[in-house]
Amino acid sequence: MSTYEARLAALREQLKADRLDGFVVPLTDEHMSEYVGSYAQRLAWLTGFQGSAGSAVVLPEEAAIFTDGRYTLQVRDQVDGKHWSYQSVPETSVADWLKDHAPDGGRIGYDPWLHTKEWVKKARAALADKGVELVAVGRNPIDQIWEGQPEPSKARLVVHSEELAGKSSAAKRQEMADWLKNQKADSAVLSALDSIAWTFNVRGQDVDHTPVALSFALVHDDGTADLFVASEKLGDDVRQHLGNGVRIHERGDFEPHLKSMKGKTVVADPERAVAAIFEALEEAGARILQKRDPAVLPKAVKNEAEIAGHRAAQARDGAAMVRFLHWLSVEAPKPVLSDAAGGAEGRGVDELTAAARLLDFRKAGGDLRDISFDTISGAGPNGAIVHYRVTEETNRPLEMNTLYLIDSGGQYPDGTTDITRTVAIGEPTAEMRDRFTRVLKGNIALDMARFPQGTRGTQLDALARQFLWAAGLDYAHGTGHGVGAYLAVHEGPQRISPAGSSQPGGDEPLRAGMILSNEPGYYKTGEYGIRIENLVLVTEIDIPGAERPMLGFETLTFAPIDRTLIDTALLTDVERGWIDDYHGQVLRIVGPLVEGETLAWLEKVCRPL
Question: Which of 44, 185, 293, 441 is the most exposed place for a label (fewest CB within 10 A)?
Fold first, then answer.
């Protein structure tokens, strides 16, 4: 099965053997993760799609793949339209599509360990009118045909020190226990990997770019807990760190344990716990309280130690970005060399070279544990693909008079970073400068926002889009996502996105201590992409005479913004002042971390407008 066509055919044969008329393939794992281990990359194995969000449906004669606006271009590049129809979310959904395409009276399979209870409920209701049965499979049919499917990671857990965490695991569990008592509940299910890592002050290496370990947990009203994780992943240091208050079980014992909780009142998060967890608790006769995972909000609201760690990590990361941007300014304009026969001897800087060089600078900066996601290194038209992932096949050189977009981040023990910069290679066009400046104005407007406590991200999103809207332009992704403390680069529950977005979290009130990205953009298909991204910290703001408690943002990310792309005629005096002040902070925070030609370059590009 070396081709995607062969894999699709093999899946259809397996579905026949399983007496199924179709199967739903989401991109997630048993923990509803955004980024998943290699063993769970079923959608990519089946279709070739390399994005971080999507799903597919396979029927006997047709198949569809579902992605949102971030992947409109990418899915067409990676998935063969001869075999798959492209479906756009939220304009349609898997359930809606199945309602129109599934055979009357058919049996559509799904893996209950890969879907939420709510998804199952809605899909079942949508298909009922056609007499279509939604069938929970005992074993995922893709796993049955995937030859060479990777095993789950066996990497060991590591202790995340209390100095960096800011609070002991015992204290976190006790706060959860107090909350459980108020809810009159005995236990809470933790199935989200970052919630478990945060609660127990451990980190892992089981998912690329996210320092988590494959595990489940139950936290109880007495502050003790049961942790379900492969015993081979625990060293004596981690066992000692967890202490007597944490009972260790094999990961495979989680479902049987749930089925033994008769008479218990158990909190399970309908957004993060899969359908199979609810089914096991229901089978046990447990009373289920559908409430949010008690780790989610305290994890999102960073304490002083986590905030201090973020600032330190951002400074080191900013120095790596400055070294990279200086290197790029020297190397990218160099002409491509040719040999005597007229053939190309070297390509100059290309997307892969640039991404690798940035990684080298991050490694040299100290204590880099991983990148926080696959670097988006997009030259020219590839920059217009919002979540582009460069490969040997798609790799492009950075050509003169084009734009280059690089979105990247690092995982450090004291913080997680995420930054995007757009750089002009050569001379930008007037249109490029206009679009870039409108994106920059939106970034500044959001950064400078002041808003009362209780404000949601949906209420702020338009601030970043207004200058694009004024020119009849927009972008098809959210403006901001939460970021973890040496955890997931995309962290809930908060985000900044339009009302009605397919990505949840925009209705979560913003609270002091939350960290979000600020990343408006503009993308011209087939030509270029623009995005400017900084991370920001929600802070309390003292406004004289204010009648309500007010919040604002503190910028955490420091690297220069390409001044050659700024059309100063479009800026107000306040915006010019913001840019000059920001570049002054870059010099103050990052300047001491670089030297020589790099420092001289930084001083030049950070001079006042």
Answer: 44
Residue 450 sits in the same domain as residue 314? yes
Co-location of 194 and 137 in the same domain: no
Same domain, 338 and 263: no
Q: Dump pLDDT digits (tens) for 502-516.
A: 556 568 999 999 999
Structural domain harbouring 483: 304-605
> Within this chain, do residues 499 and 570 fall inside the same structural domain, yes or no?
yes
Judge whether 131 lies within some domain. Answer: yes
249, 284, 300: which is the final residue of a domain? 300
Residue 151 placed within a domain? no
pLDDT at position 351: 97
pTM above the 0.90 mark?
Answer: yes
Among the candidates 300, 321, 350, a domain finishes at 300
**If we measure between CA atoms, which residue out of 264, 234, 260 comes closest to residue 247?**
234
Residue 355 has pLDDT above 60, yes or no: yes
Decide if 397 contacts 197 (C-beta within 8 A): no
Q: Count of residues for the chain?
A: 609
CATH number of the domain residue 376 falls in? 3.90.230.10
Compute the distance between CA of residue 213 and CA of residue 292 in angstroms, rounded to an integer. Answer: 21
591 and 574 in a single domain? The answer is yes
Residue type, 222: D
Cis omega (within 30 of 0) for bond into 90 = yes
Backbone angles phi, psi at 433, to 5 degrees: -65, -40
The dihedral of CA 117, 122, 123, 127: what is its sign? positive
For the segment 105-119, what is each residue's pLDDT rounded down to a tens digit?
A: 999 999 999 999 999
Residues 350 and 425 in one domain: yes
CATH number for the domain that contains residue 53: 3.40.350.10
Average pLDDT of the residues of the chain: 95
What letters, b where the CB count within 10 A reaches 16 and e where it falls short, cover 391-405? eeebbbbbbeebbbb
- Tens-digit pLDDT profile for residues 68-90: 888 888 899 899 999 999 999 88
Residues 354-377 have a mean pLDDT of 96
Give the model's confidence band at 337: pLDDT under 50 very low, under 70 low, under 90 confident, else very high: low
Q: What DSSP assignment string belongs to 364-404? A: HHS---EESS--EEEEGGGGGSTT----TTT--B--TTEEE
Task: Determine the Cα–Cα distance for residues 516 and 481; give it in Å rounded to an integer.
Answer: 5
What is the pLDDT, as a whole number, of residue 90?
86
